[in-house]
Amino acid sequence: MRARTIQAQTVERARILILKADGKPIDDIAALIGMNRKSVMLCLKKYKEGGVENALFDAPGRGRNAEITDDEKTWIINIACKKPTDFGYAAETWTYAKLTAHVNLTAEASGYTRLSTVNKSTVHKILDDAEIKPFRINYYCEQRDPDFDRKMHNVLLVYKQLSMQFDKNGQLVPFEDDEAVHVLSYDEKPGVQAISTTSDDLLPNGSNGAIQRDYEYKRLGTVSLLTAIDLQTGEAIPLVSETHNSKDYIKFLRILDDKYPAGDKIRIVLDNLKVHTSVETRRFLATLPGRFEFVFTPKHGSWLNLVEGFFSKMTRQMLRGIRVKTKEELISRIHRYFDEVNEHPVVYHWKYKLDDVDITEEIGTDTLLLEQSS
Q1: Which residue of 25, 282, 298, 333 has the lowest C-beta tally within 10 Å?
Q2: Any idea where the Tc1-like transposase DDE domain is (predicted)?
Q3: How far is 272 from 246, CA to CA, in rounded Å?
Q4: Whether 244 contacts 256, CB under 8 Å
């Protein structure tokens, strides 16, 4: 009985090889012989690995061959490391289900017949072992400023020299009469939305421990927030505007000019936004020669600007989830937040990479003379 079974098995395998040589597809071969697709593919895989003898007969004592070879794993990983769009699909990233379906569909034509029936969990394991996550996007910031390192070093030099103005107890050492330089970190936060609810919030009570809010809302418009942080006192200085242009920026510079004693220098760390260097801005600065000087962060270097930390804190503490009845209420609450912050101002200190900065270097500043305008 055993001999006849082995003989029949050998005949079936031989028929598989003959039918495949005649160009029959796998599904047709399985139907003609009366066995499942997986058994047909296993026979063809053994033929590919060791020829006719290997396909027809089981070698004694060899045990079961590895179902998925390193070459097959590499083929799957190579697909996972490309985008679905490279294969004509609409999706931006793979899901395990979509990737497995693509592997099943294209495996035979690519010479990896065994993978025509590989399942999702196996594909998942192969990618996990290779630490490939084709469904995930990690963002980074491309360095597009060829002068990035020099500009970054210049900003850090501002912070290094600034740190020397504080004593060991963290108290600001008073200016000498001829050395008054006020250092500020400045940026804008445009598009702050005024949003109102369509129904009143339900406050926490015995049955609900959280605020209950209707999903529907109404947009009332946006405002722009222009802000500077005094890096010596911690004071936050706001200007809320309906627009975000050179006129608004100049209005803010006027606020700073009125705030600090005449004759003192105002040094501002900021990005190189067009309105900061516009002809209109330069014309205004020409009326106050020597009053302002600017230290520009490199392109895509906003993380170097300390005011970004203030904006992040403000979003967490006040703006997230805010609902107002009017845009004017939003403006009022923003000003109220600044009043609260300035009751107990916090001085922002920069520490990252300051040990590499030579305190004796001269800071490179720009006074934005009118003739420098492009």
Answers
A1: 25
A2: 191-331
A3: 13
A4: no
Which amino acid makes up residue 17?
L
Strand order across the 217-230 sheet: 236-241, 217-230, 181-197, 265-270, 292-296
C-alpha–C-alpha distance, residues 253 and 265, integer Å: 13
CB count in 10 Å sphere of residue 153: 17
**Residue for token pair 């699909």:** 89
- Read off the tokens for 269: 């760390």
CATH architecture group of domain 147-343: 2-Layer Sandwich (3.30)
- 361: how many CB neighbours lie within 10 A of its CB? 12
Spatial distance between the Cα atoms of 347 and 342, rounded to a whole number of angstroms = 11
Distance in angstroms (rounded) separating the CA atoms of residues 199 and 322:
14
Residue listed under structure tokens 């990618």: 127
- Give the start-to-end residue ranges of the domains of the chain: 6-56, 70-130, 147-343
Residue 372 to residues 119, 158, 277, 292, 367: CA-CA distances in angstroms? 65, 23, 9, 15, 10
Residue 322 contacts residue 330 (beta carbons within 8 Å): yes
Tokens of 288: 């106050």
Q: Which amino acid is at 37?
A: R
Token pair of 164 as six digits: 């020397």
> Which residue type sits at 236?
A
Per-residue pLDDT of the chain (374 residues; tens, 9 = 90+): 344 455 678 888 889 999 989 899 999 998 888 889 888 999 999 888 888 888 887 765 554 545 688 899 999 999 999 999 999 999 999 999 999 999 999 999 999 988 998 999 999 999 999 999 999 999 887 777 888 889 999 999 999 999 888 888 888 888 776 678 999 999 999 999 999 999 998 889 888 889 888 899 999 999 999 999 999 999 999 999 999 999 999 999 999 999 999 999 999 999 999 999 999 999 999 999 999 999 999 988 889 999 999 999 999 999 999 999 999 999 999 999 999 999 999 998 898 888 888 888 888 889 888 765 44
3-class secondary-structure state, position 50: helix
